[in-house]
Amino acid sequence: MTNLNYHDSGRQRKKNEISKRRRIGEVDVLVVGVRRLQGGSGGVGGKRLSISASVFTTAGTIIDSGTVITRLPATAYSALRTAFRQGMSKYPMGKPLSILDTCYDLSSYNSFSIPKISISFSGGVEVEIALAGILYVNSPSQVCLAFAGNNNDSNVGILGNVQQKTLQVVYDSANARVGFATGGCS
Q1: Do residues 44 and 117 touch, judged by C-beta distance below 8 A?
Q2: Peptidase A1 domain: from which residue to which, for each copy (predicted)?
Q3: Residue closest to 85 by CA, chosen among 111, 49, 110
């Protein structure tokens, strides 16, 4: 049985926690309260990244299946990129690909290991990102971290579909909750 973990953007929000409905153009979206990014067990030293929760509350974060690459506030992306690069330091860097600036040339490797990444949401929900959601593979010589940074911390963060593709994402609009479960599309 698949476990469904809900992030309750709910009715009992703490002050400074952005988790609300917002109208963007003609669409109502639920803005979720991302608290932090962290390295999963065994990845990036298994340590939480030193990112203030306020970085994610400045503009909020949306979940958008129409956006491919997750966009993070500049401060959060910088910390993630630094930790990921440290975890991948034994592999040669590759050429950047569009907005993806952390790429590796893995063409000489039959196997490789990468740091785990997870996203913590308010309410204690932690979502570990699957391998397919961490890397974007253009070619063996251009394997990139599948996250990008916004220009600044005031731009809305977006959890894109590359990170969602192995998750079931359930929207409970009536109760203002978003749920995550493993075993989505693979």
Answers
A1: yes
A2: 1-181
A3: 49
What local confidence, expressed as pLDDT, does residue 47 receive?
67
- Does the domain at 5-89+116-131+146-181 match CATH 2.40.70.10? Answer given as yes
User: What is the token pair recorded at 98?
Assistant: 């569009």
pTM of the model: 0.75
9-17: long-range contacts, CB 8 A cutoff, minimum separation 24: 9/33, 9/122, 9/176, 9/177, 9/178, 10/175, 10/176, 10/177, 11/176, 14/122, 16/54, 16/57, 17/57, 17/122
More confident residue, 113 or 97: 97
Cα-Cα-Cα-Cα torsion 87, 88, 93, 96, nearest 10 degrees, comes to -70
